[in-house]
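Today's session is about reading a structure prediction critically. Students often jump straight to the picture, but the first step is always the sequence itself: look for stretches that repeat, for charged clusters, for runs of hydrophobic residues. Only then move on to the predicted structure, which in these notes is written as discrete structure tokens rather than atom positions. Here is the chain we will use throughout the hour.
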Amino acid sequence: MSLIKSYLLNQMNKELFDPGIDNLPMPVDGIELDLEMLSQREQLMEDIDAIVDEYAYIHDLNVDEAEDLVRMLSDAVVKNFPTK
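Below is the predicted structure for this chain, in token form.
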């Protein structure tokens, strides 16, 4: 692509979307990564809950003990994957 075409394309893109002019929130570095990490952490805790529940059901384990195990494992996930 020629320099003139790339310059004009760049200018056109700036005119179509400028958060400052369009009064939109400015993009912030790291937000998407934090959201992705939190989503993965939440999914891991849900997976732990499902695995322990299924295991407890198959092996006729005490429900209270299974819930305690889920709580301990979830606490470990939160401790090792903090939000900040």
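Discussion point for the tutorial: Helices lie at 3-16, 31-58, 63-80.
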